Request: fold
Amino acid sequence: MSVVSLLGVKVLNNPASFKDAYQFEITFECLEPLQRDLEWKLTYVGSATSSEHDQELDSLLVGPIPVGVNKFIFEADPPDLKRIPTSEILGVTVILLSCSYDDREFVRVGYYVNNEYDNDEMNQDPPAKPIIDKVRRNVLAEKPRVTRFAIKWDSEDSAPAEFPPEQPEADTVEDDGTAYGAEEEELEAAEAAEVETAEGAKANGEDEEMGGAEDTSGPPAAKAEDEESDAGSEDLEAESSGSEDEEIEEEEGEGEGDNDEDMEMGEDGEGVGSSEANKDQHRQAQHQGEVMVH
Reply:
């Protein structure tokens, strides 16, 4: 818990000329008596690319601090132009208002500051070398950025925790490394037991397979029965093959019968043709005979 709380900051002369001093009205509250003074500082950021151009405009020690709400005006000089790069004079920059107790910063307020010429013509076409008398600054007081830090005040009880709190009960808890090692041993033992069980089951399975192979041979009677069954199957095959041969012969016989019939039909046809030729020859002979008779 902070002993001093910042309640508000008001920028008095804003906007103002670049050469004018900064003025702030600061209000804060103190909850208990303090043994030392508060130190307030105002810092001007001269360049956005390097902290080498930052400059402390002013600092102020305030004390002794009574308990309750306090208010005062903090005034700081303008920045030194020699410490600011020429290209960084115009444009947007930052000022930081901070407060410390016993060299320990506990609050910081940042403001954006816009530096520009006081007429539009020069802003549109600025000269190569800035004319400081024509430059005006405008602090964006409506949008401050406040950052607070926990510090040690006068009593040890107010000091922030720099290390994790002590945990006496943690000593009674079993070490994680021991538990982890025990778990590993249990896992290894379980895996070894599984491997042994699998090997035993595999050996038993091989024995059973060998026994089954011996039993399949069977006694002689069983062999005789198997041979008879094989013989029966052969006879059936022979019969089936014989029947097939007979069927083939019958089909061939039928085919030959058909050929014989065709041959007979052919012979009959030849007989009919020869008889008709004989008749024609006989008729011609009769005709010749008749001619010769006349």
In short: The first strand starts at residue 4 and ends at 11. Residues 213-219, 231-244, 247-274, 287-294 have pLDDT under 50 and may be disordered. Residues 117 and 193 are 88 Å apart (CA to CA). The helical segments are 120-124, 176-217, 220-293.
